[in-house]
Amino acid sequence: MLSNKKVYLIASAYELGNVYDIGDLDEIKKDKEILETLLKFGLKKYTKSQLTPPIMAKKTAQYTLEKGRINRKEIDALVYATSSFWDSRFYDGKEVSRLSYELGLENAYPIGVFLSECGNIHTAIRTAASLIQTGECRNILVVTTDQIQEGGTRIIPPNISIASDAAASCIVSAEKGDFEIMNITQHTNAAMSELDIEEKSEEYMYAVAEGIKQTLWKSMKFTEKQPKDFQQLITNNYNLLLSKTISDLGGFEFEQVYTENIARFAHALASDNLINLCDFLNNNFLNSQDLVLLLGTGTNMWGATILIKT
Hints:
- The chain has nine helices and 13 strands.
- The chain is α+β, with helices and mostly antiparallel strands.
- It has a nine-stranded mixed beta sheet with strand order 5-4-6-9-1-10-13-12-11, sandwiched between helices. A two-stranded antiparallel sheet has the order 2-3.
- The two termini are 19 Å apart.
- 48% of the residues are buried.
């Protein structure tokens, strides 16, 4: 739960790779049953980038800094989130410092975030918001960026989606902006680390469902809100069946869930929430005080961020 000091999220932006049909993936060509299942539940395309995660991060960060119109010298920190560990150049301090230098962020202290996997964006926003509330910082650039290694699997177990290369960004600020961050809730189930996703997929998915329920329940309990109070529920892009399941678990109507990007690029890992927020705002009007709930998930951790339109 956030303190009484107001914190804002502004200038969300993103960078996607090139778009391809999921049926073009070699690993799916070998198993038409998986392809049929994915297509049945709304998946069509995925994205693959020739850019490294730091370069994707740089591109989306440039969009955010231009939109945010905050003097780059006034960015006090850069929170850099990634799960792309297959090349140390993608996440080491020197590379992230180079990113700050090339963006002109001469006063931005680098902070790395990684343990929440596809929920990294919520840890990143929570970290930034906490630094704002303590008074240590006023403006923080948040970036999440990921790329699947060439030859690595893009199938999200247990065959629920396809991974895309992407980056997304925003500024968390003490200055009034697009949204006030009303609440950030995170939840984890350490016991799930002992579950084999493939061998015990039903037990795993049950535990995931319980984690989602707990996260949504806690976030709404803290804020004294109900599902009907939200204009939109923005989740990770897995598939239409899981989107319906998530809405049911939280007591939302399926029409409240943003699903337009499932067919467009599938699961862009931790970037999903900000990308979906950007695209929702580009095609829909929000009134002042409208509420949006962002929900992100990792293997055994979940995060929910409630935003209120200013």
